[in-house]
């Protein structure tokens, strides 16, 4: 009876997971963390929401993945997610898709034209945050913004803070991959390691090496969460 129950259950350890990164260095960092675990396929999907959407759509059309996980480095909002910490997304938001008026911003939801926000798989993202805590890796849960343009001014940072009070990080791919996944009903997750503060551009100050090291740890934690 027990055997039969186990056979009928949809077991998380039997799932096949597609991981979407933007550049090769992120893919290699995640793969080091995963240590050749067969159930994960890691792709370099390109930079920006359009490249991420197209690459994800192509991958999930070719193979029946059970989860899509967007991973990479990101900017963190000061006071919400410091450099080298990890952000596990609660939702993936297209930060600039909508319409401006003289005094506000209208999202696609406000306009009745679709949605600018897709929720991350709640149970797994909560579990992941616990796994990071367990390893004493600083982790924050919050919305991850997808912006086609990296924020480079104080003024834009403040606009985003006001518009998205629950945002912890900004990157460029999540909502694109999530759109492709949602069209096939595949749950989405986003895990980001913070390389820089969102705000005035200072590319030399980005801690890419540190963030890639945190991303490698994130790969190991993802493996632990899916295999336990
Ligand atoms: O130059 C390198 O060695 C290198 C290694 C890994 C990654 C990079 C990138 O430039 C990745 C671009 C990627 O980073 C995300 N990102 C990072 N910070 C921000 C931000 O403040 N706002 C938006 N996006 C950010 C983004 O997802 C890009 O795809 C270079």
TrEMBL record:
Name of a matching Pfam family: PNP_UDP_1
InterPro entries (UniProt xref): FL_hydrolase_MqnB, Nucleoside_phosphorylase_d, Nucleoside_phosphorylase_sf
Ranges of residues in domain Nucleoside phosphorylase: 30-218
UniProt pathway annotation: Quinol/quinone metabolism; menaquinone biosynthesis
GO MF terms, alphabetically ordered: hydrolase activity, acting on glycosyl bonds
E.C. numbers: 3.2.2.26
Domain of life: Bacteria
Catalytic reaction annotation: futalosine + H2O = dehypoxanthine futalosine + hypoxanthine
SUPFAM superfamilies per record: Purine and uridine phosphorylases
Entry keywords, A to Z: Glycosidase, Hydrolase, Menaquinone biosynthesis
Sequence similarity: Belongs to the PNP/UDP phosphorylase family. Futalosine hydrolase subfamily.
Purpose of the protein: Catalyzes the hydrolysis of futalosine (FL) to dehypoxanthine futalosine (DHFL) and hypoxanthine, a step in the biosynthesis of menaquinone (MK, vitamin K2).
Protein name according to UniProt: Futalosine hydrolase
Organism: Thalassorhabdus alkalitolerans
């Amino acid at each position: 009876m027990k055997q039969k129950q186990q056979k009928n259950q949809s077991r998380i350890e039997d799932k096949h997971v597609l991981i979407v990164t933007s550049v090769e260095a992120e893919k290699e960092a995640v793969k080091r963390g995963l240590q050749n675990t067969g159930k994960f396929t890691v792709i370099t999907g390109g930079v920006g929401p359009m490249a991420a959407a197209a690459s994800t759509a192509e991958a999930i059309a070719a193979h029946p993945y059970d989860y899509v996980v967007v991973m990479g480095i990101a900017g963190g909002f000061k006071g919400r997610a410091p450099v080298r910490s990890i952000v596990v997304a609660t939702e993936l938001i297209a930060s600039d898709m909508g319409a401006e008026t003289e005094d506000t911003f209208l999202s696609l939801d406000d306009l009745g034209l679709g949605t600018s926000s897709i929720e991350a798989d709640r149970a797994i993202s909560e579990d992941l945050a616990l796994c990071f805590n367990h390893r004493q890796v600083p982790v924050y849960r919050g919305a991850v913004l997808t912006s086609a343009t990296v924020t480079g001014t104080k003024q834009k940072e403040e606009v985003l803070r006001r518009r998205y009070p629950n945002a912890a990080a900004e990157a460029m791919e999540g909502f694109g991959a999530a759109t492709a996944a949602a069209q096939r009903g595949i749950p989405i997750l986003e895990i980001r390691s913070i390389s820089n503060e969102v705000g005035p551009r200072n590319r030399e100050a980005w801690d890419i090496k540190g963030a890639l090291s945190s991303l490698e740890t994130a790969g190991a934690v993802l493996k632990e969460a899916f295999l336990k």
